[in-house]
Amino acid sequence: MQVFKFGGASVKNANGVKNVAALLQKVGYKNTLIVVSAMGKTTNALELVIKNYFDNNAELQSALQEVKKYHNEILLDLFENENHQVFKKVTGFFNELNLFLASNKSPDYNFVYDQIIGYGELVSTAIISEYLNFIGLKNNWIDVREFIKTDNYYRSANVNWEETQQRISSNFNKTVLNITQGFLGSDPNNFTTTLGREGSDYTAAIFAYCLNANNVTIWKDVPGVLNADPRYFENAQLLNKISYREAIELAFYGASVIHPKTLQPLQGKEIPLYVKSFFNAEAPGTRIGRNITLDPMVPCFIVKKNQVLISLSSLDFSYIVEENISEIFNLLHLYKMKVDVIQNSAISFSVCVDNIYDNLDKLLHHLKAKFKVTCHENVSLYTIRHYTQNSIDQIEEGKTVLLKQLTQETVQVVSK
C-alpha cells in the first residue's frame, strides 16, 4: 500500500491533471491512495468568497463565479462531452455551497471558513477522479470527512485518532485505486473541519499510519526537500536524505515543503516519506526515514515573514518570574498565538509570534495592563539549522537585528 499526495500546483490546470495521470501510469498505481489538494490558487479564491460573505456581500457572487469559471475551463479542456456526469457533480458541489451561504446563521468566522473552504478539495478530487476513469484508470472517489474525525477546533482541528483508525480500518478498500481530499475532516456533528493550512500532507500521513502503508510520496514542483526556499535564497541545494528528527526540526521552524504535523504519525510506524518532483517522476528526490544522516551536511535556511515580535518588561523593574511567564503563556494560548521564539532575562521577556487569528490588538491590550509593551509587526524570523558564521552573516547583511538566539545546532534571528 502506498500513499501519494498531490498539491494544488500539480493540478492547477488541465495539463497538470493529465500529467498526474501520466505519472501514475509511469510509476504504478496498484494498491494506491491519492490525496489531492484544491486546484491551483482555489483556496485563496475561496478565502475571498469568505471575506466578501462577511464584509462585502455585493461582491460575493462575483467572487464565487470566478471559482466556478476557473474549474469549468479545466473541465472543458479535459472532457469532450459537456454532458459527462462530472459537470453535474461539480455543479452539485457549488449548489451545496450556495445553499450554505444562503442559510448559514453562525457568525463564527472559523466555522464558516471551514464549511466554505473545503469545496476546493471536493471539486478538485471529483474532477480528477472522473478524468482518471475517463481515460481508463478506474478508481474509487471517497469523501475524507467520512474517515477522518476531529474535534470542532475549526481551521486547526485535532484528529480523533481512535475513531479515525476504526473508520479507516473498517471501511477502506485497499485493493483499488482510491482518491480523496487533503486538508479536511469532520467533527462529531459532521460539520466540515480543516487540519490547518497545508494540511493535505498531514492527511496523507494519517491514512498511511492507519493503513500501515509501505511509504508516502509528496509530489511537488521542486526536486525534493531543499536546504532553503529558492524564492528567498539563492543556490538552494537538494537534500538527498533526512532523518525523521531533522525533518521534524525543519518543519517545526517553518520549512514549507513539509507540514509540521505530517512526520509524527509516519515516525511512529517508521513509514518512509519521499518528496519528489511531479515534473521528473523517476528522479530519486528526498528520502526521509529513521537513522539517516543529513546528506549533504549543509546549513538549512528557513524564513517566516509577517511575524510579530512582542517585548515585555515589568512596570516596576521587578523580576519576570514563573508566575508572570505562566500568565503570559495563558494569554498567548487564549488569543491563539503560535509561538516561534522566546527569550527572557531578569526583567524582560520577548516572544515572536504568528498572528494567524488576527487577535494581536486584544492580546496587546491585555498585556499592557501589567507590563511595559513594545511591539514590532511585519518582522521576519530567520532560522538556520547547522549554521556557520558565514551563513549567519548572510542573513544579517543589510538588516536590523531585533533578536538573536543561538543553540548548538540552530540560530534564530528576528529582523526588520
Order of helices and strands: EHEHHHHHEHEEEHEEHHEEEHEEHEHEE
Number of strands: 16
Structural class: alpha/beta
Biggest sheet record: 8 strands, mixed
Rg calc: 23 Å
Q: Tell me the span between the first and last alpha carbons.
A: 47 Å
**Number of H/I helices:** 13
Q: Write down the overall mean pLDDT.
A: 95
Name the beta content range.
Answer: 15-25%
Low-confidence stretches: none
Strand order of the largest sheet: 3-4-2-1-7-9-10-8
Shape annotation: globular
**Helicity, in percent?**
25-40%
Outline:
This protein has 416 residues and is of the alpha/beta class. Helices cover 38% and strands 23% of the residues.
Question: How would you describe the overall organization of this protein?
Answer:
This protein has 416 residues and is an alpha/beta fold. Helices cover 38% and strands 23% of the residues. The chain is built from 13 helices and 16 strands. The strands form 3 sheets. Strands 3-4-2-1-7-9-10-8 form an 8-stranded mixed beta sheet, with helices on both faces. A hairpin with a 3-residue loop joins strand 12 and strand 13. Helix 2 packs antiparallel against helix 3 and helix 2 crosses helix 5. The longest helix is centred in the first third of the chain and has 19 residues. The relative contact order is 0.10. The model has no long low-confidence stretch (mean pLDDT 95).
